Protein: Response regulator transcription factor
Amino acid sequence: MAAPVRVVLVDDHEMILAGLQAMLSGFTGRVRVVGQAAEPAEANRLVVSLRPDIVLLDVRLGQHSGLDLCRSLSATAPGTRIVFLSVYDDEQYVFEALRAGAAGYLLKRVDGLELVRRLEEVAVGETVVDPTLAGRMAASVARLGRGEFWPGANRGLTQRESEVLSLLVGGLSNRAIAARLHLSEETVKSHLRTLYRKLEVADRSAAIAVALREGLFR
Structure:
């Protein structure tokens, strides 16, 4: 029999880590959890030390970005494949994950057997995407080609990030943006951090300058 796929789990919620451990414990002949981490620095240390076949992580890790961790691990441990397991079912996150070097993007509603199958596929070189997202991705690519997407989609912005940027360009504060979109201020700040990274800028004034220069909002 083939050796089990060696996996490191990365999530900032202890309950999720415990749940994944319990879910995968019934498949020890096929998948073996060799380590777990709650934040990027710990994850980097574990992966460099253990050299697992796969790292299973979330898009967001508290105040940190799983996408940034994916880029870091792709550089420091190129033999380890990255699979995202997230609640975010937005196809733009999938595009961003694949651009960051991931080999898969699955949703947290996946059951244990399906998760094991997907991990085994990744371990032998496949790229996997949750079936409910795969079709939407194909439609998104077609719409992007026809110019039917929201402003900033070509820069990897999600529709919500585009809405936040639009209000930013309109001069609204974080509190006003939160009120307009019915979000918490912390969620708005999280969206801003992500769109800054995607636009390759450091602050709101630079983001506004890019949006105006590229004609994203008129």
